[in-house]
């Protein structure tokens, strides 16, 4: 398993990490495998979505804030229950296909780290799983 460190800058943001993952695949000469990308955090997730238009990630953040407000009648003493809920909805792991030395994504797709309780220093765990 390998670990990548990512610094987030805002309480809530989507950071495009597609380039970081592509670089990891190239530097490790991965070919024809499945790559598990995992966030070991309870307030920071991962997703694949459109990265061509930044309004998509902005719309997603805005809608999540609207659906799950920061201040509600939460009981969690740390005051970040909204971040836990958002992360549970988004998810904390994704898998991608690596073929011929590159990550296989759709034309408009990118890989995003989703921060909901930043800014923080985050870790992403990467585990290539070889296939036949």
How does this model look, in words?
- With 132 residues, the chain is of the alpha+beta class.
- The chain has one domain: Sandwich (Jelly Rolls), CATH 2.60.120.
- Helix content is 26%, strand content 38%.
- The chain has three helices and eight strands; from the N terminus they run E-E-H-E-E-H-H-E-E-E-E.
- The strands form two sheets. The chain has a five-stranded antiparallel β-sheet with strand order 1-8-3-5-6.
- The chain starts with a strand and ends with a strand.
- The relative contact order is 0.38.
- It comes from candidate division TA06 bacterium.
Structural key phrases:
elongated, UPF0047_YjbQ-like, YjbQ-like_sf, three-stranded antiparallel beta sheet, Jelly Rolls, YjbQ family protein
Give a short summary of the structure.
This is YjbQ family protein. The chain has three helices and eight strands. It has 132 residues and is an alpha+beta fold.
CATH superfamily: YjbQ-like
Side-by-side strand order of the widest sheet: 1-8-3-5-6
Query: What is the straight-line distance between the termini?
Result: 20 Å
What is the number of helical segments per DSSP (H or I, 4+ residues)? 3
């Amino acid at each position: 398993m390998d670990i990548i460190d990512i610094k987030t800058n805002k309480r809530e943001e989507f950071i495009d990490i597609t380039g970081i993952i592509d670089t990891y695949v190239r530097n490790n000469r991965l070919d024809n495998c499945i790559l598990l990308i995992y966030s070991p955090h309870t307030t920071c997730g991962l997703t694949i979505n459109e990265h061509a238009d930044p309004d998509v990630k902005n719309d997603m953040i805005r809608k999540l804030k609207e659906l799950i407000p920061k201040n509600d009648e939460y009981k969690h003493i740390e005051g970040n229950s909204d971040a836990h809920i958002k992360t549970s909805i988004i998810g904390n792991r994704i898998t991608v296909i690596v073929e011929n030395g590159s990550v296989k994504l759709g034309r408009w797709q990118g890989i995003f780290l989703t921060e909901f309780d930043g800014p923080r220093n985050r870790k992403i765990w990467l585990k290539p799983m070889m296939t036949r």
